[in-house]
Amino acid sequence: MLGSDKFYEYLLILQRIYKSISARYWLIYVGAKFGIKNPVGGNMSIKYVVACDGSPASGRAVAFAIDHARSNGGSVLLAHVLEWSPYSFLTPEELDERHKRRGEELARAKTALVDPILASVSTDGVEIDSVIKYGHVAETLSDIATESGATQMVIGRTGQSSIKVRVFGSVAGTLAQIAPVPCTIVP
Fold first, then answer.
1. Helices 21-33 and 56-72 meet at what angle, rounded to 10?
2. pTM of the model
3. I need a labelling partner for 32 at 20 to 30 A (CA). Which of 4, 41, 66, 141 fits?
């Protein structure tokens, strides 16, 4: 069995050989298993973007991300996306009313969903922040990951096998296909 110092040395050699992004994620994962915080060195911080909607599945995803962030010195960004379908045929008055409602919905989502999640989790030194946006859920979550410089995305799944999911797909399934960074689906 290798000692952690020797293992860390091998990780650095691998990093020099494989400069790709996927190799960096692999190094972070394996290094965390050996208790090495940020094994890739440099200024790369480990950030988890977690999709949260208040469901038990998203609660498990939040707990998973916080545990992993705690073990490797990372941070967590809770992301909630409100579905928003743009209408192109609205009068200026209707657009103003719609934007007013949009602001109210964002504030309501923050106080009713995100703030209670933040208050209920035990972060124990893990930096945690939140963001709420409108849009198509999977695409907007991918955009949030890109904009925030995330190194991994985490989402819970409900395990539904209904016809709707089979025909239209699930957010977790779509995100696994389009995510710009590795995506963990928590059962």
1. 80
2. 0.70
3. 141
